[in-house]
Amino acid sequence: MSQTSSSGARLRPDERRAQILAAARRVLLADPHRELTVELVAAEAGVSPALLFHYFGSKKKFQYAVIEEAAAEVMLRTAPDPSLPPDEQLRAGIRAFVRAVLEAPQLYRATLLMSAAGDPEIRALHSDLRRVFSQWVISAVAERGIEITPVVELACHGWQGYVEQTLLVWIDNPTVSPEALEHLCARSLDAILSTT
Are 141 and 186 contacting, i.e. CB atoms less than 8 angstroms apart? Predict the structure, then answer.
């Protein structure tokens, strides 16, 4: 398989990796519920599976690269918008998180399952993502004038676990609309905080 692009220019290794990761993104967007396989991505990128392995080393390392890129995008998309009022910052961030998950539900499921199974790299990545998101949520709650006591902080962390499980259940059995799911996730934080 040639290592040139469709325009005939030879790609550097970082460009080829980026091309393959972009192909993985297109595959996810085209059918979010389809399993992301090496064969599907290689075909979309116009390379052989062997060349994909050449650039990523293994299926596991390829999966990690895709998950890492997706996690970076989620953190970027859910970053607070200081131009919005505190309540809207929080709702907008939660909506952005839910929408990012629904764009690639199989990838999200794989991330949680691989983390739960003890994969050290995925667990560390998942922990980083949760920590950044939790810190953002706690800061947004503080901006609403709520004192961040140990109980409130614990409630915010617990809410994130609730959201993860809710999204996993919905991915397997989408009984409500995505809009209803976003609303549920946003309102559940208020409900949990009302008990503190």
Answer: no
